[in-house]
Amino acid sequence: MTSPPPEVARYLARRAVSGPWRIDHNDREDFRTVVVIPALAESATLPGTLATLACNPPERLSETLVLVVVNHRTDSAPADKADNLRTLRMLTAGSETPPELQLAWVNAASGERELAEKDGGVGLARKIGFDLALSRLDYSRPNPLLVSLDADTLVGPDYLDALRNHFHNAAAGGAVLPFCHRPGHDPAQEKAIARYELFLRAHVLGLQTAKSPYAFHTIGSTMACRASAYVAAGGMNRRRAGEDFYFLQQLAKTAGVVQVSGSVVHPSGRPSARTPFGTGRSVEAQLQEGAKAILFYPFACYRLLGQWLRLVASHVESNEQRLTAMAFQLHEGLFEFLERESFPTVWKRLVVNHPRPDGRLKAFHDWFDGLKTTRLIHHLCTSAWPRCHPEQALPPLLAAAGLKPTEDPREQLSLLRRLQGVEPERCADDFPARNVCLKG
């Protein structure tokens, strides 16, 4: 094993997860990439994910560890616990695991290895996998990578090549891959998945038109980063939901996040109540409540966001009174939000701590981050511009982005998929769940 660089060693000593967990089945310590897959009651879907990974080139598979973190909390449902034991038996027997893979797993699902009720969840499961993976990377070779995938997500045969090629050239240490949800099992589910994906894509397009530095999708199965970027960001958080949002936000602040090209991942769009928000919960809500469960942010919110970000960038040497007064001139709702978030006090501190304009602007964006951006939009939606249906929200947003406006949600989704790196043929088929290599 090549000794990890000092920053990785410091992270392992100070911030890595502690507990009874270990990597089982594979002892190699010379991998260039580790793909971490948390699995909670995924015995039916995990084989499909592994099968599509196995379709990648043999030379990439030989240098990639696929690490499955089988996990549940002590208070998880008995059925989920039983399913996890089936997964562990399957992995141990090798009955449904492709021999092409360098496969290993972490048992966080039995005895003292179960996750604690108070802090267990997908964030901790990802953290266990990533932290343990750091000791299995070859640091003598450039850009050892940590990659996040889910146990119900399918990938193409170009997946590992696209990641390796991207980080060979990219300056940013973090990345997200393009995605396209797989079709639903019936028309109602398919409609719900499409509407939720359109909501995600419209929001990122809105952030892009506003020139926000946080204009990227935050989906756990699309994340990747250099090991150096992972430790610089402080590692994965332990959140039960939204762990992907907070991790990518921190990566954006410390190493940058850009989109990979050349491959697409295919998450499941199945309904689920497992987490308080996200794809599964949103699909489930629509099936119960109809389209009103997913309403879109009006374009006016993004227009005001862009005006605010440009105002700060062009007046970065102004004092807090001047900036606050100009914010009020833009919109009273913006002023109210900034007052609530103590912006005048924060800006005064930024002026003292960051005398150079470029450093001050960077510090501002670290403070006015993806979470505060979302909070501002939610504030504006409750105080000025209520959420609406895509037929109303998308046409002005598309026009602002220089695209042809349309009120047809199907056309809107197709247009945004293409704009965000997904060609139509990548989403055309109902891909089988196992034993099939997806189209490139």
Description of the molecule:
With 440 residues, the protein is an alpha/beta fold. The protein has 18 helices and eight strands. It has helices at residues 6-14, 46-53, 58-62, 78-93, 122-133, 159-169, 187-209, 227-232, 243-254, 279-289, 299-314, 320-330, 332-340, 343-353, 357-367, 370-383, 390-400, 409-419, and strands at 23-24, 33-39, 64-71, 102-108, 145-148, 174-176, 223-226, 257-259. An eight-stranded mixed β-sheet has the order 1-4-3-2-5-7-6-8, sandwiched between helices. Helix 4 (78-93) links the parallel strand 3 and strand 4. Helix 12 (320-330) crosses helix 13 (332-340). The chain is globular, with a radius of gyration of 22 Å.
Features:
440 residues, alpha/beta, 8-stranded mixed β-sheet, 18 helices, 47% helix
Structural class by SSE content: alpha/beta
Mean pLDDT: 93
Give the % helix.
Answer: 40-55%
Shape assignment:
globular
Query: Total strand count, please?
Result: 8
Uncertain regions spanning at least 5 consecutive residues: none
- Kindly estimate the percentage of residues that lie in beta strands according to DSSP: 5-15%
Number of helices: 18
H/E order of the elements?
HEEHHEHEHEHEHEHHEHHHHHHHHH
* Main pleated-sheet profile: 8 strands, mixed
What strand line-up does the widest sheet have? 1-4-3-2-5-7-6-8
Measure the end-to-end span.
34 Å
Query: If you compute it from the alpha carbons, what radius of gyration comes out, rounded to the nearest whole angstrom?
Result: 22 Å
